[in-house]
UniProtKB/TrEMBL annotation:
This is NADP-dependent oxidoreductase. SMART domains: PKS_ER (SM00829). It comes from Sphingomonas sinipercae. InterPro entries: ADH-like_C, ADH_N_2, ER, GroES-like_sf, MDR_fam, NAD(P)-bd_dom_sf. It holds the Pfam family ADH_N_2.
Length: 322
């Protein structure tokens, strides 16, 4: 493994075999079923101080995973338990019990949902929209990367809460997917001026912007913001592989429109996951919220799946089936 310069390539990754440690007291042996790849992982490839330590060179990558317990030396876990953890990018792992969370008991839900709509992406959407952006019924919401794991969740949560939604996605097929989720308008950012298409889609302006992209999307949101608009800054994938500084033509409107911008992280809300499971679990069970996954097969495909996040390969959540 090596640290990428700009956009990562397959050469930055290596598939290696490791001998699992002994199953000592308090340890659990897990066989993974699905692995998650997420845009935030790109930041951890840089050797820079951030909210989470960088990945170590020549050490197993980490990421969200769901698997089954096959052997346990911890009283709270037994073989067959479905567990969520952060030791992804491998087929099996031996972990301390404190590193595992039992998957919630929600009827009719496939295991991989706990890495997507009922996992970190769904919770990021839920708390980012309803807490960080303080969105409420009647608001006009603009969400970028609306066909992705987080964005598609934002669209559906906003509609469940009585908001008007404009989603941006790349290409006609993804825009059609965004509309199928209930979005009132879907704009193709590849089809022309984003500012023009957003003005046409939201002629009255926007009250909330959920940012997954940054760059031109954020600038267009500045331009179309209404008085006291609230921006939730979740991710800025446009800049993850760039060394060029972002430039914003309309940022000055923050003053006149009294715009509030708030960055947030999933980890800020872990203590409140009960609220998320209560609401999202109900919406998923009654069909108001649906999930869509893009799945690649085999541990060896994990780098390809990750790189696909930056070229728009995925619709919905990108997963690897081990």
């Amino acid at each position: 493994m090596s640290r990428p310069e700009g956009t990562p390539t397959a050469d930055n990754f290596a598939l290696k075999e490791y001998t699992l440690p002994q199953l000592t007291d308090g340890m659990v042996h897990v066989r993974n079923l699905f692995l998650s790849v997420d845009p935030y992982m790109r930041g951890r490839m840089n050797e820079a101080k951030s909210y989470i330590p960088p990945f170590a060179i020549d050490a197993p990558m980490e990421g969200g995973a769901i698997g089954t317990v096959i052997e346990s030396n911890a009283p709270d876990f037994v073989p067959g338990d479905l567990v969520i953890h952060m030791a992804g990018w491998r087929d099996e792992a031996v972990l301390p019990a404190k590193a595992l969370q039992k998957a919630p008991n929600i009827s009719g839900v496939e295991p991989q949902a706990f890495l997507g709509i009922l996992g970190m992406p769904g919770a990021t959407a839920y708390f980012g929209l309803l807490d960080a952006a303080e969105a409420k019924g009647g608001d006009i919401v603009f969400v970028s990367a609306a066909a992705g794991a987080v964005g598609s969740s934002v669209v559906q949560i906003a509609k469940a809460k009585g908001m008007t939604v404009v989603g941006s996605a790349g290409g006609p097929d993804k825009c059609e997917f965004v509309r199928s989720l209930g979005a009132d308008q879907a704009i193709d950012y590849k089809s022309g001026s984003l500012l023009v298409t957003l003005r046409e889609a939201a002629p009255e302006g926007i009250d909330v912007y959920f940012d997954n992209v940054g760059g031109a999307h954020l600038d267009a949101a500045f331009a179309r913001a209404r008085l006291h608009a609230r921006f939730a800054l979740c991710g800025m994938i446009d800049g993850y592989n760039s060394r060029e500084p972002a430039q914003f033509r309309y940022i000055i409107r923050m003053i006149a429109m009294r715009i509030t911008m708030r960055g947030f992280l999933y980890g800020d809300y872990v203590s409140r996951l009960g609220e998320f499971y209560r609401d999202m679990g109900q919406w998923v069970s009654d069909g108001r919220v649906k999930s869509r996954d893009t799945v690649m097969d085999g541990l060896e495909s994990t780098p390809e799946a990750f790189l696909g996040l930056f070229t728009g390969t995925n619709t919905g959540k990108m997963l690897v089936r081990v």
